[in-house]
Design a protein that fits this description.
The chain is of the alpha+beta class. It has helices spanning about 1-35, 55-90, 105-135, 245-255, 265-275, 325-330, 335, 340-355, 360-370, and strands at about 40, 45, 145-150, 155-160, 165-170, 170-175, 180-185, 190-195, 200-205, 210-215, 220-225, 235-245, 315, 320. The protein folds into 2 domains: about 45-80 and about 110-255, Immunoglobulin-like, CATH 2.60.40.420; about 265-370, Cupredoxins -  blue copper proteins (Immunoglobulin-like), CATH 2.60.40. Strand 1 and strand 2 form a beta hairpin. The longest helix is centred in the N-terminal third of the chain and has 35 residues, at about 1-35. The chain binds dinuclear copper ion.
Length: about 375
Amino acid sequence: MCCGEGTGRVKKTRAIRLRRSWVSVISLIGLASSTSGCGVIGGKIASTSDPAGDQARHIWDLFVVPVWWLSVAVFLLVTVWMLLNIVLFRRKPGDTRIPAQVHGNPRLEIAWTLIPAIILALIAIPSTRLVFQLNRDPGPGSNALRVQVIGHQWWWEFRYPEFGIVTAGDLHLVVDRPVVLSITSQDVIHSFWPPRLAGKVDAIPGRENTLVFTPEETGVFYGQCAELCGAQHAHMQFRVVVHSQQEFDAWVDKHRRPAPDPAPGTLAATGKQLFEGAAGCAGCHSMNPTYDPSTPINKILAVGPNLAYFSERQTVAAFLPNTPENLHRWIAETEAVKPYSIMAEKWWKIRAQQNQLLTPEEVDAIVAYLRSQ
Ligand code: CUA
């Protein structure tokens, strides 16, 4: 009786354990598929295996040959050899012989040290060569576009010294035209990474790192900060918008002057008043798309991202799709959307403490103003 109960309990515990392990496996699969869905734009995953720029293509080619094919060869060789040995040299019934002992055999030791060394050298030679080829500045004689990239906790700023244009969140480039990015940071170390276009480059305060590549397709590409840089690291995204030369020229033309003011008497006009006055937005955000190109790269232009022509931006708060609903939520519930951001800490929380949060109507007006841009 007692023992029957005991076996029952053991069975039950086993069943629970089994169920738990299934739950873990299923949750892991779920987690993997949900995270691998990150960075989907236009139905395409931001995968390094689908390059749309010359640098990303060189890196991918290096991975396929030699890394991938060498790995496949090693895997097949080892597996076939192992299976053959298991089948051919299986101990037969009644056989009590001890196999030949090879411990300390110098020939074998040399062989299994040399073979991996040769394989590593085969991978190292082209890798090192590529490292030296990449990110070479084509020099002032080329038609390369030059952009300064500045990392902030937690958004990216882009300055075009050639045109005196500054923007944030979206990097605008030209298809088939090389770009030379000078990358730095204004606070901690970030890492600039547009997976389908190029490799990663660290953004380090007080230092300018160079990333050189040529986009080979038009469209919008996903970018991500690739260095753990604080609470909102995962939300420190950007988009690369690759235009035809003609489209890019139009973009530059437009951004050389501020967007026109909203018509008087409209909701957007009320929003502009609030933005520049009572709401305090203009204290951190500039609406002027231009800057003095002689400004050093490490000099802060404004605390928050430049918001000129905001309606054209791909994202709100550097990660949410730019819809009126998301913009409304970002202004009304900043702390919930992106906790620890400067806007949450220095604007939303302080206004909340002082009971000065904007009314839904006021938020609507600011949304209308930003959308009118
Ligand atoms: Cu910036 Cu992670």
